[in-house]
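[recover] target loaded
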C-alpha cells in the first residue's frame, strides 16, 4: 500500500533534481521515507536522495518500489496552483499510480522496476573538501562554462579554486579563501577535472533556494562528491561525478 500527500514544492524538488540525470526513476518507499538513486545514461554521474517521512503531509506506506517517468510527473506538477497538494496512491494489483494535483486526477502506468538501472554510491573516503554557499558554487561553475565544458577544482591550505581555460588563451578563475567558506579541509594540495554537463545544471537548481550550503569533496582522479540537506534537514542528497582523466603530466 502507498498513500502519501506532499506539498507541491517538495515533489517539484524531487522530480526536477532527478531529471537532471535521468528520464525515469525507481522510487523505493519505506516505512520511514522515500529513497531513490538515479544514474545518467553514460554512467558518469549518480544522484541519491533520502526523503524522510516527516517531509510529507501524510505518509501511509507498506514498503514498495515503483518506477515512474519523470517527465510525466513534471508536466502534471506544472498544473499545480498555489497551495495545491499532491496526492499519490499506488494500486499494486494493476500497477497504476494515481496522482491528484488539485482537481486534476491522472493515472500513470508504473514502469517495470526489474528492468531499471540499479546503482550504489561509491564507497570512497575523502580527506579534501569544503562547505560553501550553493549560490557561490553555482556562480563559479556558470562562469567556468563560459570558456569550457570542463572545470578544474583545486584545493590548498587556505583556498578553494574553480577554474577553466581553453587553448585560445581565454580563462576563468574563481577563488574562495578559507574565510569565505563554512569549512575547508586541505591536508595537502590536490586538484581534479570534471565535466560541467550535469554538474552545472544541478548546482544552478540548488542555488534557487533548495539548500543554503553544499559540501564538496574531491581528489586527483577520483569522483567529485557533493552533498546537501533540504526541507529543514528532513531530506539528504548525495551526488557523484566521475573525473575527466587526461594524460597530461
Amino acid at each position: 500500500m502507498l498513500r502519501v500527500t506532499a506539498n507541491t514544492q517538495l515533489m517539484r524538488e524531487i522530480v526536477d533534481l532527478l531529471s537532471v540525470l535521468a528520464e525515469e526513476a525507481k522510487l523505493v518507499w519505506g516505512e520511514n521515507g522515500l529513497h531513490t538513486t538515479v544514474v545518467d545514461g553514460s554512467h558518469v554521474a549518480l544522484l541519491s536522495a533520502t526523503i524522510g517521512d516527516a517531509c510529507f503531509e501524510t505518509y501511509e506506506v507498506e514498503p514498495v518500489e515503483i518506477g515512474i517517468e519523470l517527465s510525466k510527473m513534471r508536466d502534471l506538477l506544472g498544473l499545480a496552483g498555489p497551495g495545491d497538494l499532491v496526492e499519490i496512491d499506488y494500486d499494486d494489483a494493476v500497477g497504476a499510480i494515481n496522482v491528484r494535483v488539485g482537481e486534476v486526477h491522472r493515472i500513470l502506468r508504473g514502469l517495470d522496476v526489474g528492468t531499471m538501472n540499479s546503482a550504489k554510491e561509491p564507497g570512497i573516503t575523502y580527506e579534501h573538501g569544503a562547505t560553501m554557499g550553493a549560490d557561490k558554487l553555482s556562480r563559479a561553475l556558470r562562469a567556468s562554462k563560459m570558456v569550457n565544458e570542463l572545470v578544474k577544482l583545486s584545493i590548498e591550505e587556505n583556498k578553494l579554486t574553480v577554474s577553466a581555460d581553453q587553448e585560445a588563451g581565454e580563462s576563468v578563475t574563481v577563488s574562495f579563501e578559507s574565510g569565505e567558506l563554512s569549512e575547508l579541509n586541505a591536508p595537502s594540495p590536490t586538484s581534479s577535472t570534471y565535466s560541467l554537463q550535469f554538474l552545472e545544471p544541478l548546482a544552478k537548481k540548488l542555488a534557487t533556494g533548495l539548500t543554503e550550503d553544499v559540501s564538496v569533496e574531491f581528489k586527483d582522479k577520483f569522483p567529485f562528491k557533493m552533498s546537501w540537506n533540504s526541507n529543514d534537514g528532513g531530506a539528504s542528497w548525495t551526488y557523484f561525478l566521475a573525473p575527466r582523466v587526461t594524460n597530461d603530466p
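[recover] notes: Residues 211 and 230 are 5 Å apart (CA to CA).
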